[in-house]
User: Fold this.
Amino acid sequence: PKVSLEPLIKLVWEGQKAQAKAAKESQVPTVTLAADQYHKEKIAPYGGKGGKTLSKDGKRDAQQTKKYLTKAWPNRKVSDVTHQMVETYLKTARRLDGKALSQQSRRTRLTQFKMFFKWCMSLKRKWIAENPCDGLSFTVDRSEVKTLANEDVALLLNAAWNDTDTSRRRLCGRDYALPGIVISLFAGLRPWSEAAKMYWED
Assistant:
């Protein structure tokens, strides 16, 4: 009688496939280790998007991402984090004072997590095939974005103008803070990511 080798070949192939999968999964790091590697890579020279060196804000953002990820899933492998886990975390996470996160904070953390997991998906790593953040979104109500009243603007400007004490630092508030406050308030620039990067010649 003829003996078919197809079942045996199929069995060997499935065994090799299972071994390859197990080997690949064994190389996937925990979220803590991956977040640390992500942070180190991002703050290194030319570690930003498009080969750019991150600004101070960008480095601070990378540090925050590492902190939030490590706190959320310290012992989980990157490949074990699911869409449901991300959603649950963002909806239940609290501030240091115990209060719930604002929608803006949830959206910011979602963006941070999405960038991290996209990094985990890159050809260099291939730790996951899908981003667990995909499909999640948080709408920010306009009421969360508050506009300073004219009285508050006046108080802020007066406080900076009247600060002439140079004993604590080389420049007083009038010289150090006032220009940035004026540019941020009346030119519509973001204080740290835009106004703080300007030079006098600009």
The CA atoms of residues 80 and 198 lie 43 Å apart. The chain has a mean pLDDT of 84. The radius of gyration is 25 Å. The helical segments are 6-26, 31-43, 56-72, 83-92, 103-121, 150-162, 173-176, 178-187.
